[in-house]
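Reopening this ticket.

The earlier resolution said the output was attached, but the attachment link was broken on my side. Pasting everything inline this time so it's all in one place.
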Amino acid sequence: MSRSSGSGAWCGVPAVVLCLAALLCSNLLLYLYLESLNLGTSYPSRHAHTHCPPGHFKVGTMTTCTPWLECPDIRADVRRLKLIGRGAVKQVYLAEWRGQKVALSVLSSEKYKDDFLHCVSMLRSLQSARVVTFVGVCEEDDMFVTEYHPLGSALALDKTLAQERYRSQDSWNTRLRLALDYVAFLAFLHASPVGTRVMCDSNDLNKTLSQFLLTADLRLLANDLDALPKVVRGSEGVKCGPRRLTGDFVAPEQLWPYGEDMPFSDELMPGYDEKTDIWKIPDVTRFLLGHVPGSDVIHFHLFQIHAECKKQDPHLRPSALEVLSVYRLVYDSMKESHTERIRDML
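Inline output:
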């Protein structure tokens, strides 16, 4: 009996030690996770992986910056691989340049050449962490080159996050970060180096989402800049095309104000400004947040600022920068709550 009891005690000591070691390891892992949450800034910022001087680019596996490509470079070294997108203004091809995957955009129709050249001009002028990397242009051949992002536009967000490799990232954190990217681009656009610009290719949700690319690290980049008219203060404002706009997605001031009895006339249609973009923020964010755990809490925190975005009078709506400030506060609050819940587990 005593031998058996002594043997049990001897066997029990390593078991206790192993349990304590496992507990310590699990606590260490949780602390490391908490530290990873607290690294960096208090809110996510989209930093370009390239830091090139103006007129230069770096994409893919490139280690040095190169001047923007011109006609001789594009004709000699850019090889089309396959068609990946088609629109009224341009066709987009997956292409290759010196071993790097790039996107080659080619004018679809001469009647849209002004829009095409406007896109080139905006890509050049708005190069930043919020906009796809510009690689080069050949205006003689009606084509330009940008960085290639295989995940495609933000329209494919839900489909992308349903994939096995991204499923673990389908969280409030990832989705709110995307909403932050969207609002941050609007704030940049409304105070850009080339004046206050309005996103005119945004007459419905799908069209708006198609203007943005989804990067491999699940961030948003503005890509399609065909229609960004400039707001001139003191003028009559801008108009997004000569056609009548309808639906709930567009801002009230973009709708024909004179009723059904009077035929639409572009000349009589009043202009508007960048506050049309503010009206659309809640609808875009609703899509980006999806229905993941935590999204309902975010919607609650954003309720007041979204109500202000939907003011009928555009002058009463907040600026994109004011909306962005609230989004950042909500992100910080959500992250802090998440961290506290994990600490409570220790």
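Reporter confirms the inline version is readable. Confidence is low (pLDDT under 50) at residues 1-11, 31-49. The two ends are 40 Å apart (CA to CA).
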